[in-house]
Amino acid sequence: MNSSKYQLKMVGLNKVITVCDDSHLLDSMSKGGIEIAPNGCHGGGCGVCKIKILKGEVKTLCMSKKYITEDEKNDGYSLACRAFPLTDIEFEFIGKPICKVNKKKKYGFV
Questions:
Q1: How confident is the model at residue 80, as a pLDDT?
Q2: What is the pLDDT of residues 26-42, one digit of tens each?
Q3: pTM listed for this prediction
Q4: Angle at 76 between CA 73 and CA 37, to 5 degrees
Q5: Which of 45, 101, 103, 105 is 20–30 Å from 21 (CA)?
């Protein structure tokens, strides 16, 4: 079975990547070099990959209502690990990026 391909663009980043409808957006971002979203649980339960879909449509799997309320879902918010593209997508990253400071080295503790 062939998967459909779409364009994925993050607002503020001059990069457009091609994604397939059989991969969730977080996976697609990582494979395409958009590494702003941290890898969390990949199950919709931690909220670190929260995005807002500005243009396009996605199919979503179950997400924790703690991170995506019904109102937010209706307003285009999703978790990238639970969203699969149905069209070309333009999105804004909402979740918090990973802090790349090595605390053990810098401060002597974890």
A1: 94
A2: 999 989 988 776 677 77
A3: 0.81
A4: 95
A5: 45
Nearest-angstrom CA–CA distance, 28 and 32: 6
How many other C-beta atoms are found inside a 10 Å radius of the C-beta of residue 27?
A: 17
Check: CB of residue 27 under 8 Å from CB of residue 86: no
Instruction: Yes or no: say if 91 and 25 are a contact pair by the CB < 8 Å rule.
Output: yes
Residue 77: strand, helix, or coil: strand
Alpha carbon 97 to chain centroid distance?
A: 11
d(Cα 102, Cα 75) in Å, to the nearest integer? 36
Handedness of CA 98, 104, 108, 109 (dihedral sign): positive
What three-state secondary structure class fits 6?
Answer: strand
